[in-house]
Design brief:
Oligomer: single chain
CATH architecture: 2-Layer Sandwich
Number of helices: 11
Order of helices and strands: EHEEEHHEHEEHEEHHEHEEHHH
Strand order of the largest sheet: 10-1-12-11
CATH class: Alpha Beta
Helix content: 10-25%
Structural class: alpha+beta
Number of domains: 1
Length: 345
């Protein structure tokens, strides 16, 4: 039987409102500059925003399997480095500082790969004029039943009892990479320089001091909510437990992820004359079901019902919460200014 994680006192969770994401990657850069700027981490993107439908990173991760089925581990495959995409070096010196800016364009100096983590960014699916795409925000899911924890023979992966954050003890890690293989979301990376696995730590040094994680705080679209699931005053609790409009990605993976999503609403279709087809949806429900399961239909219907209420002049606390007029309401009490810390993180 798989190793069972210890019960936690409280579970920290997050909600991503996919309807507000700009695809700007500000969250990605916030994480990159704070946590993954050391040797061996060049190719790592602990936070990533992928265009959907798309291959994501590592390429085709949804088809690599992992997680659990009927309580038992599902066979999976270790992603190749080329599927993540190497960190290329570009000819910045020539173009920006060598006086060749009018004669040369930015291009890779190294690498012959044909893939990278944002290779298919902003590429739409469907036929014009009814093409579509949307953005999927991904960090470690900090699962209630982490497949990575169950797969590690060194007991190097643990779940913090006080907040449920899943971490890797790098002093115990021997670099076997069973965790990378077992994670169905493929959110674990391998540091070739240090020979250890590494991943998102949910900015726990910030959390411990009352500061929201960097990718949450830096998001200009107010996409990201964070809070404890049992905190009845938090937006996360209301969106997940009360209104139930935030649902997990690929619940069939069996890891009980604690990152939840408000699925994307769809623009309408155009007919051959260029007129809007009332009541139509451009993003196929079948595709959204493949991501979030059949419960996505109830969520989308609930969102549209609430939107109809506001158009009639009625109030919707749920929509007011999602709109997030005041940013502090999004962070479940983790609103301290990082600039006030003695040792900012």
């Amino acid at each position: 039987m798989p190793v069972q994680p210890p019960p936690v006192k409280r579970q920290l969770a997050a909600v991503f409102d996919m309807n507000k994401c700009l695809g700007c990657q500000t969250c990605t850069i916030a994480c990159k500059t704070l946590w993954t700027d050391e040797e061996g981490m060049e190719y790592m993107w602990w936070n990533i925003v992928s265009t959907m439908p798309g291959e994501g990173t590592p390429r085709g991760w949804q088809k690599l399997s992992g997680g659990f089925q009927d309580g038992e581990p599902r066979p999976s495959r270790l992603p190749k480095l080329s599927e993540f995409g190497h960190a290329w070096e570009f000819n910045y010196e020539d173009v920006l500082y060598g006086g060749q800016g009018m004669n040369q364009h930015l291009q890779p100096k190294t690498g012959d790969d044909n893939w990278g983590p944002l290779w298919d960014e902003d590429q739409a699916s469907g036929a014009y004029p009814n093409s579509y795409f949307f953005y999927l925000q991904m960090i470690c899911m900090h699962c209630t039943n982490p497949a990575c924890l169950a797969a590690c023979p060194r007991q190097a992966i643990y779940k913090r009892v006080d907040d449920g954050i899943v971490l890797i003890d790098e002093e115990r890690c021997s670099g076997y990479r069973f965790c990378m293989e077992a994670c169905p979301y493929k959110r674990i990376y391998f540091n070739q320089a240090k020979k250890v696995s590494q991943k998102c730590i949910l900015c726990y040094p910030r959390i411990e001091q009352g500061v929201a994680p960097a990718c949450f705080r830096q998001c200009p679209g107010r996409v990201r909510f964070i809070g404890f699931l049992d905190d009845e005053e938090s937006a996360v609790h209301k969106l997940v437990k009360v209104w139930k409009v935030a649902i997990p990605l690929h619940p069939e993976f069996g890891t009980e992820p604690n990152m939840y999503y408000v699925p994307p609403l769809s623009p309408p279709l155009f007919d051959d004359n260029g007129d809007v087809i009332e009541g139509s949806e451009r993003i196929p429900r079948q595709y959204l079901e493949s991501l979030f399961g059949p419960d996505v239909n109830r969520v989308l219907d609930t969102l549209r019902t609430e939107m109809a209420k506001t158009r009639r002049g009625e109030k919707s606390e749920m929509l007011d919460t999602l709109i997030a007029y005041e940013w502090k309401s999004m962070f479940g009490g983790f609103t301290r200014d990082p600039g006030t810390l003695k040792r900012p993180v």
